[in-house]
């Protein structure tokens, strides 16, 4: 697993995630464009008394995909059923979920790019016509029986929109591309969370955490809780000084790089002389899954300008070299 403060959720954190999760579009901080687009989509459907188009939420971990799926259901005033791609191993798994939906319900499929192929094909028809074909019997005697479904809204989430087959992507009426948050937006996320946690962190401290949160609300909230722990245990003031002390204890550097980010950068620079190095070699060297490196670490390191992708693999930029206190070799 990635470091303590990475964008992935540890089971123990789930309670906090729930407590800090905004429940309405109005409470959802930042992502102005997505919020406005989504507001229109939901508003129009409500005026016409129909289910809205299916929604695809695409973007890196921790930016609010699960949160938005719950907001969709809350704004529409309908129940939500949640499942995930890896839980749908067969078309039958999906048929069971689809046939249990009540009219208008939101079906949230997380990591939708990891669903079984056979289920994917069933989903096409379900999304388009609210119907599925159930196969009954085996071999030559097998027949397909059509089954009508209640109208529903599918909300799919993926960290890897590129992996979705085109026919599936095309059946979503709206795709929200979630972008990393600007620091000012993260400050908004943090102010809201600090209020909910009853933690009067001063503005300079809020700004300091925002700058180290890798554009990610989940990380911002997590760092905030670690800082709060620190002030409780050491009985220090809720100020920027406590933030600095707490975050250096947790190995989050001034740019928000955590242990794993630095490890990836260090391996490219030290072991592969700055690269290029392929994804799988890199993953094996760090002892992490290639998917984690690709979905969590790389987008951040690239956005920070510390690494770049070349056709032959990942390379450290001169900024990447100097971030580690090293001098890049002459070109
Ligand atoms: N726009 C936002 N405003 C306030 N808080 C937010 C916002 N987006 C996310 N959060 C906070 O960040 C946490 C993580 O968000 P969420 O679980 O929705 O991310 P995700 O995109 O589903 O991540 P993953 O890809 O790992 O499933 C939430 O618990 C919520 O508290
Ligand atoms: Mg999620």
Automatic annotation (TrEMBL):
GO terms for biological process: DNA recombination; DNA repair. Mg(2+) binds at residue 66. It catalyses: ATP + H2O = ADP + phosphate + H(+). It comes from the Bacteria. ATP binds at residues 20-21, 62, 65-67, 128-130, 171, 181, 218. Pfam families: AAA_lid_4, RuvB_N, WHD_RuvB. Residues 254-331 are annotated as: Head domain (RuvB-H). DNA binds at residues 309, 314. Keywords: ATP-binding, Cytoplasm, DNA damage, DNA recombination, DNA repair, DNA-binding, Helicase, Hydrolase, Nucleotide-binding. GO terms for molecular function: ATP binding; four-way junction DNA binding; four-way junction helicase activity; hydrolase activity. Its EC number is 3.6.4.-. One of its GO terms (cellular component) is Holliday junction resolvase complex. Residues 51-182 form the AAA+ ATPase domain. Homohexamer. Forms an RuvA(8)-RuvB(12)-Holliday junction (HJ) complex. HJ DNA is sandwiched between 2 RuvA tetramers; dsDNA enters through RuvA and exits via RuvB. An RuvB hexamer assembles on each DNA strand where it exits the tetramer. Each RuvB hexamer is contacted by two RuvA subunits (via domain III) on 2 adjacent RuvB subunits; this complex drives branch migration. In the full resolvosome a probable DNA-RuvA(4)-RuvB(12)-RuvC(2) complex forms which resolves the HJ. Has 3 domains, the large (RuvB-L) and small ATPase (RuvB-S) domains and the C-terminal head (RuvB-H) domain. The head domain binds DNA, while the ATPase domains jointly bind ATP, ADP or are empty depending on the state of the subunit in the translocation cycle. During a single DNA translocation step the structure of each domain remains the same, but their relative positions change. Belongs to the RuvB family. This is Holliday junction branch migration complex subunit RuvB.
């Amino acid at each position: 697993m990635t470091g303590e403060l990475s964008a992935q959720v540890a089971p123990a954190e789930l309670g906090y995630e729930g407590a800090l999760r905004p429940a309405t579009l109005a409470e959802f901080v930042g992502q102005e464009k997505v919020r406005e687009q989504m507001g229109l989509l939901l508003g129009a459907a409500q005026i016409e008394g129909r289910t809205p188009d299916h929604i695809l939420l695409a973007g890196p971990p921790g930016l609010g995909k699960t949160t938005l799926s719950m907001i969709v259901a809350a704004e529409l005033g309908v129940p939500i059923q949640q499942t995930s791609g890896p839980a749908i191993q067969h078309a039958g798994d999906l048929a069971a979920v689809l046939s249990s939906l009540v009219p208008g319900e939101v079906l949230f499929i997380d990591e939708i790019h990891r669903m079984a192929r056979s289920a994917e094909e069933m989903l096409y028809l379900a999304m388009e016509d609210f119907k599925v074909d159930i196969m009954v019997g085996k071999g030559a005697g097998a027949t397909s029986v059509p089954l009508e479904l209640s109208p529903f809204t599918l909300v799919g989430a993926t960290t890897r929109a590129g992996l979705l087959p085109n026919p599936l992507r095309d059946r979503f009426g709206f795709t929200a591309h979630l972008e990393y948050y600007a620091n000012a937006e993260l400050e908004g996320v943090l102010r809201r969370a600090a209020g909910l946690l009853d933690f009067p962190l001063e503005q300079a401290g809020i700004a300091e955490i925002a700058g180290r949160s890798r554009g990610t609300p989940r990380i911002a909230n997590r760092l905030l809780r670690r800082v709060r722990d620190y002030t409780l245990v050491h009985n220090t003031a809720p100020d920027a000084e406590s933030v600095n002390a707490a975050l250096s204890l947790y190995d989050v550097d001034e740019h928000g790089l955590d242990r794993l980010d630095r490890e990836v950068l260090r391996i490219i620079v030290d072991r592969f002389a700055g690269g290029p190095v392929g994804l799988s070699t890199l993953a094996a060297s760090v002892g992490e899954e290639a998917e984690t490196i690709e979905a969590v670490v790389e987008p951040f390191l690239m956005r920070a300008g510390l690494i770049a992708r070349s056709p032959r693999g990942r390379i450290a930029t001169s900024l990447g070299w100097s971030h580690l206190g090293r001098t890049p070799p002459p070109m």
